[in-house]
Amino acid sequence: MLYAILIYDVESANPSSEPPPPEVAQGVMSEYNAYTASLRDSGAFQAGEALQPAPTATTIRQQDGRNVTTDGPFAETKEALGGFYIVEARDLDEALALAAQCPGLKYGSAIEVRPVVDYSAFAETPATAGATA
Question: N or C: which end of the chain has fewer CB within 10 A?
């Protein structure tokens, strides 16, 4: 089963105007690179990316039949989604064990683990692809 490991942190919601010292940034990146490598080596890694801070986001909604965009995320929060991993795990316990190894935990990030919906039962088959009602 696929699980999303969602990494929420204060820095993504409220980025500092000053970048961290290069040695700090390199140290954190080394930890995340090692974590990603361990997920790959175990066969659990499916995908993963870091996200730019929340103020760089644009949100789109539909109001009265037209699309409206706003700068930033939908809600003001103390933490924002900073990145994610998609992993393959036997069950929630294994997904939690993989998430517990995420370096963000020791830097104060909240790590959410959520099952990914399996839409394979709804996939088009060759017989139904392109069919119209």
Answer: C
